[in-house]
Amino acid sequence: LVLASNSPARARLLEGAGLVFTRCPADIDEAIIKDTFVDTEADAERVAATLAEAKAVAVSTDFPGALVIGADQILECGGVLYDKPESEAGARRQLQSLGGRDHRLVSAVCVARDGAALWRHDEEARLTMRALSDAFIADYLSRAGPAVLDAVGSYHLEGLGVHLFSQIDGDYFTILGLPLLPLLAFLRQQGVVDG
Q: What is the pTM of this model?
């Protein structure tokens, strides 16, 4: 079993579920893939699913016979797809934009073997962010530190980011970036997980 991701959150989820796996982040240019959707009306599901599959398939060619898990997450708010912020100023802008609004997190997962996708799944969660003052955002960014740059939306729900929200509808694992229960069900069918 191989995780084609550099995400500490995804690795923690798999470790917490008792899975033994190798980590090998996919060496793909996500920006090029996302650019293919710029002139289309691609939805968050399509973009996330395409990226998850590209990661899994790319890494699977280096691990013959292994099941490779690729995953991606896209945040959509008001028809705009968000990426991870590139700087603290970018994180501030994201939080100012998302404050007081609903947004969707779409998490997609794909399992590939030997260069071919075997299974795909995506789920969404809906989150309502509280209205945030500039002072609150500054304090939050100071306390959360540079880790917010690793998260689309500039938050980690499992940490200080929980203070940003007034309502959350959706699966916790999906919010963290990996629809874990459907993935475990697939891995059971493949005989990788007992049960």
A: 0.91
